[in-house]
Amino acid sequence: MNEKLKIKLSIADRVYPLTIDPRQEEGLRKAAKNIEVLAKKFEQSYAVRDKQDVLAMCALQFASKIEQGGINEAENIKSATRRLKALEEKLKGSLDSENVL
């Protein structure tokens, strides 16, 4: 029962008809709304020539958040790995000193 859902999303004063899996609807609608909100911010804050410029800035903003999230995650993993190795060394040292007695 892979029934598809037909929806229409409005982005930058254009309507985009889509055929999607029903499980995607909420995410797509939220994404379209976030694009609209950010586009309005850019239009109000900067002198933009056309919607393409606004949409390019939106794409850059969202892509940079994703990339930065990946960088932050990698840094967190490295930090956790260092801490776990330090803890492992302490445990080994503690166990070795107990075995000496």
UniProtKB/TrEMBL annotation:
GO biological process: cell division
Keyword Cell division listed: yes
Stretches assigned to coiled coil: 70-97
Pfam families linked to this entry: ZapA
Keywords: Cell cycle, Cell division, Coiled coil
Protein name: Cell division protein ZapA
